[in-house]
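Narrative summary of target 7.
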Amino acid sequence: MNTTAGVSASELAVRCIRIMADGDRADFDALIHPDAVNREGDVEPPECRVGGPAGFYATALWLRTAFEGLAYEFHHVVADGNLVAVHSTMSGRHVAPFAVYDSQGVDTVFPPTGKTFAITQSHWLRLQDGRLIEHWANRDDLGQAKQLGWVPPTPAYLFRMARAKSRVRRAA
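Modeled conformation, tokenized:
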């Protein structure tokens, strides 16, 4: 078992995901390596694309703003040296606009629906020096979109999406 100060790699990986829902900045500074990279950051806001604790904390705030009651349930955690695979369910309620980005800026904005969701995810984390240094994920984005009423979109929801996208672009 790979341990750092008595904490197994599996326990450390779970803590790194759990803080996305409820950690404060100090938690991110303690658990995320200064050189950490989030391989999923290309669809996130620009402030989330920086490395280290600041980028991971910005991702947490982005998710928490859009999804009230953000929570993770852990099903399986498997560690092999400094690589840990985590199978979990993320849940929450969509209460604020959720903006997705591309290399040009804002790509799509999903206005709040007030609906709840619960989707499975697989996270892959590489650890170094007792902290997270690299993260990848596979998520059920289509399942989330269906549960939240994003797809298939109604004409009224498409109009709300266009209006929300315009607001986010103006604010950026």
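The beta strands are 3-4, 7-8, 32-38, 67-80, 83-94, 98-102, 105-110, 116-128, 131-139.
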